Amino acid sequence: QITFMAIVPSVLAALAPLGLPQMLRHLGSGGEALPALLATRLLQAPAPSLKLHNRYGPTECAVNSMLFGPFRDVTDDLLRRNTVPIGWPSAHRHVMVRHSCARDGEGQEDATNDGWLGLHGPTALDRFGELLVAGQGVANGYVNRPELTSCYFLESSRGAGRFYCTGDQVQRIGTNGCIIYAGRADFQVKVQGQRIELGEIEA
User: Fold this and answer.
1) Which of 41, 56, 86, 193 has a 20 to 30 Å separation from 134 between CA atoms?
2) 3 state DSSP class of 29
3) 189 CB-contact burial (10 Å; exposed 0-12 / middle 13-18 / buried 19+)
């Protein structure tokens, strides 16, 4: 009897809703953006106790860094945005949104472990920025790749430790600090949850 599953959305799309176990209680989605319409289909599965969890976190941060859920309803606002948020920082994680115009710490937003944003510099709802993650589980860098490490890992000036620059564009969509994934800042793509660097293929 399967009660918990964690699968990438592209595979879930092939299972929803009738392919899910009836005894399923918790369904974790991660590795890709979770479309709101797919979440609606999943919640129509013949599993009366089913709740969804949308999880976010790159490999460099030991996978789970942010969480939205558990939830059983897809609101009209999520349907309008067409995607389920990645939510708030997990325990022992610290995130920052760095706007593209940020200089010397300006234009950055911090989120504490309870998910509430502390604001530093100019900020606004729905403004795009790159998500940075610090805290327990964040890697020290890439093995024997010092240049790549210095590009993606930054030391925090606010005592949060080392930040990993995810390259993921996000938006803050609520005054409670909820964050939604909005795409990539580079040419990286994902295929069934696996990261593909197009630049490496071209090289």
Assistant:
1) 193
2) strand
3) exposed
pLDDT in tens, 3-56: 999 999 999 999 888 888 999 999 999 989 999 999 999 999 888 899 999 999
Residue type, 143: V
Residue 60 and residue 164 in contact, taking contact as beta carbons nearer than 8 Å: yes
What is the chain's length?
Answer: 203
* 3 state SS for 88-151: EECCCEEEEEECCCCCCCCCEEEECCCCCEEEECCCCCCCEEEEEEEECCCCCCCCCCHHHHHH
Beta sheet of 66-71, edge-to-edge order: 4-7, 26-29, 51-56, 66-71, 88-89
What count of other Cβ atoms lies within 10 Å of the Cβ of residue 11?
15
